[in-house]
Amino acid sequence: MNMMTVNATTALSTGAVADARDAARAFLEGLRQPAVAPDASVLVVSALVTNALCHGGGTCTLELTAHPDTIEVAVHDPSRHAPRMRTPDLNGGTGGFGWPMVNRLARATAVTRRASGGKTVSAHLAC
């Protein structure tokens, strides 16, 4: 099992999300058995990190883990509020696309409250 942790401890910026995507690409490229859907993994990383920074308190930690048949993307943030499905805003630019996309791309998703506070949002992607 391969694992990598990336901290994104800055306020939401294109740089923080881009760094998370770059870290995911590097992690996937370093696997002995490359992931079948690296683009899906990078999209999920982007959506979960963006959501955590926008709605989860402005900081997060990204963990990527390669299991035998899945890539696990886990994002820890200080908020106890779980992501929610909502109708995407096609005109106002207020989002609503990320969580539904994550749920469509992943085999499974989970939201786990952390004993230390906050939560972990995870997605398992086929590889």
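Next protein, fold it too.
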Amino acid sequence: MIRKTALLTGFAGALLFAAPVLAQEATTPQTPEPAPAEAAAAQPQSLTLTPGAVVKSANGAELGKLVGAQNGASGQELTVRGADGAVRAVPVAGIRQDGADIVVNASLSDFQAAAAIADEAPTEATPSTAGEPSA
């Protein structure tokens, strides 16, 4: 009888010792840890917008040179001076940086179809009539 009591007491003691460990394992969350790429994507991207930087479309076509940024009717926009010297607005949605270049979602045809900004004068000199004699 003493053997039986000692055996049952030992078994009960082992269960009492293991119970916290079993309870702790049962309550730990079973979700996997997020991958490093997912964690990096959750953080906002840092951009360096330097006037004069090359602005490209998503397919790699050069739109022009960055002049600055402004708040337009559709939200924030970049102002870009195209090859023709006119400054046009490009939406910042989907903007990213590729080295020193800035890549936007607008295509070259979208950029060229946009209206020129009236406040910015073209860089090309227009012929002046100041020195010509009047008739």
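About the second fold: Residues 2-27 form the longest helix (26 residues).
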